UniProtKB/TrEMBL annotation:
The lineage of its organism: Bacteria, Bacillati, Bacillota, Bacilli, Bacillales. SUPFAM superfamilies: L,D-transpeptidase catalytic domain-like. It comes from Melghirimyces profundicolus. Pathway: Cell wall biogenesis; peptidoglycan biosynthesis. This is L,D-transpeptidase-like protein. CDD domains: YkuD_like.
């Protein structure tokens, strides 16, 4: 079964199977005051989002959300691609929309997510 490692120091999310890296994606992480929590979690839900809400407003989570077992935190897309690679979120892990959709197709609910410093 695949699993995920998020390396906060290099702001990269790795999808692995065994010791083999299947994919590596750049990510945005939590600001200094709202850091991304280190630990081991699981993906508890997967929710596709429409790109816009009624009235044309962009959704805050890009095109996809994967909730983590730590309440209020998740891996999601963004409508601000310039935020990827930076410390900008409230603790969530931001990905390019195309990357979060690719990852969501590859991992089931229950996938282990290790976030390390």
């Amino acid at each position: 079964m695949p699993y995920i490692i998020v390396d906060l120091s290099d702001r990269t999310l790795y999808l692995l199977e065994g010791n083999r890296i299947l994919r590596a994606y750049p990510v945005g992480i939590g600001k200094i005051l709202t850091v991304t929590p280190v630990g081991t979690y699981t993906i508890i839900n997967k929710v596709p989002y429409p790109y816009t809400r009624p009235g044309g407003r962009l959704t805050p989570y890009g095109t996809f959300w994967m909730g983590l077992s730590r309440r209020g935190y998740g891996i999601h897309g963004t409508n601000n691609p310039a935020s990827i690679g930076r410390r900008v979120s409230r603790g969530c892990i931001r990905m390019f929309n195309r990357d979060v959709q690719d990852l969501a197709r590859r991992v089931p609910i229950g996938t282990r997510v290790i976030i390390r410093p």
